[in-house]
Structures are given as structure tokens and as C-alpha cells.
Amino acid sequence: MSGGDGIVTYRHGIAVAQLALFSAALFFAVYFRFGHRNGWFCIGVFSIIRVIGAGCMLGTINQDSDGLWAAVFVCESLGMVLIVFLLLEFLYRANKLVHTVHPRWFFYPQVLTWADLGLAIGGFAAASRNEQPLAPTQYTQASFGLFAGLYLIVVYTAWCFWRRLDTFPPDEKLLIRCVAACLPLLGIRTAYSLVFQITGDMTWNAVKGNPTAYLLMTFLTELGIIYASIWAIMRIAPPPRKQEKNKAEVGPDAEQGYALVDSGRESRERQEGNPRVESSS
């Protein structure tokens, strides 16, 4: 794929669709943020990354700049972990109501993410010194290998919840079904990156590879996950706020209890002949 010649290609058309649809997803993320709903951070940051990447791809129409291509490469390489954390956030909410798995299954992905981040930084540094900066390196191969392990952890965790699906309230059932529907799409997206990292075949490169493969295995899969999650979040009740949760834990008799304490204190003061109490009466 060339750039800077002013010609709009198939890949640029996909970038236009990304720009429009992920901008809409960003709007939903802002709405979820102010509505105190689940998923707003992961959906919002992921959408921002894809919007920036699409904008840089459109910029290559008139400017064949190494900086623009590098920005597209970086944006295409980022964001997958946010999808994983979005799905784990759904399962974490369900686990708080019906304890299904040990909390460590939500801790392991965080450890792998930090290791993956270190490998990704090393991969970008190695790519900048490589004659072919878009080619796989040992760092990027190890990074996507870790992500494949992260994906398997999410699959196992989701399977544990699926086995006990009947024990969950309706909202949490919907979230678990959403995760189950998104995992095959995430598997396709993961396979797309792994094939390129293993073979080095530029057909599977997200920046200058085959546009149809990118459309089917990257753009549509990511879009399906994000909008399936948005649909699920819109259909469930937002999680209780901390103030509401604390009030629920105290119970409806809390105010009555405080009134009894005050009245007891007042009666003792009357017995002791407190002038302030007598004057107030």
C-alpha cells in the first residue's frame, strides 16, 4: 500500500468507517461515564486509540510520512488489552454477587499485562532500528504470545461463570452471555495478529496488509465486541454507587437508631437537671 499520492484506497475506506463508528462508541463511553455505568473507561480509551489510528491512516493519503505510518502501527498494536479488561469487568461484577472464582483470576491478567507492556516497549524500540519496522521481532512475538495466554485465562474464567449461569440475576446473566458471544470474536482478532507474528507474512499486517483480511478479522471483530458490550450495558442497571451501597448496608432502621440514641441522651440530661434541656422543653 502506497501513500502520499492523493489516491483513496480500500484500506482508507475502512479507516473512514472506523472514524465514524468508533467516534459514536466514544460518545456512548462519555454517556456511560456520567451515568455511572460499567465499561466506560475501556470503551472510551479503546475508541480514542482507534479514532487516532484511523485519522493517521487517512493522513497518509496526501503525506507519505514515516511518522504517520508509525502512528498507525502503534495504534493498531494497542487496545487489545482494553477489550480483555472490558470482558473481565463484566465477569467481576457478576462475581461480586455470586462468588464463582477466586479473585486471583482477575489478578493474573494484570500481571501479564505489565509484562506484555514491557515487551511491547522493547518491540517498538527494536522496530525503530530495523530496516523493516513493520516486520515481527522477538519482542513482538513474545508480547503476542503473552496475550494469547491472557486470552486463554479469560476463556477459562468465562467458562466457570457459564457453568453456573442459572445462579445469577438477570442483569449478570446478560453480561455473561455477552462475554461468551465476544470471546469467539476476540479469538479471531488474536489469531490475525498471531499469524503475522509467527509467519511474518505481510498479508496479515494490520497496517499494510490485505485490506479484506483486516476488515474481516480486525475491524469487524473489534466493532462487534465494542457494540455488543454497549448494547449489554444499556440493558442492565448501573452498579450501585458507594453512598447507596453504604446506606443499604446500614439498613432502613439507621435513622430510627440515631433518633433513639438522641432521645436517650436527652432523657438522661433531663434527669440530671441540665438547664439547656429544660429550657428547650
UniProtKB/TrEMBL annotation:
- Which segments carry the region annotation Disordered? 242-281
Q: Could you name the domain of life of the organism this protein comes from?
A: Eukaryota
Determine if Iron is one of this entry's keywords.
no
Query: Which InterPro entries does this entry report, sorted A to Z?
Result: DUF7702
Does the keyword NADP feature in the UniProt annotation? Answer: no
Q: Residue ranges of the DUF7702 domain?
A: 8-229
Task: Give the transmembrane region(s).
Answer: 12-32, 39-61, 67-93, 105-127, 139-162, 174-192, 212-233
Instruction: Give the compositionally biased regions (Basic and acidic residues).
Output: 263-275
Q: Which Pfam families match?
A: DUF7702 (PF24800)
Key words of the record: Membrane, Transmembrane, Transmembrane helix
What name has this protein been given in UniProt? Answer: DUF7702 domain-containing protein
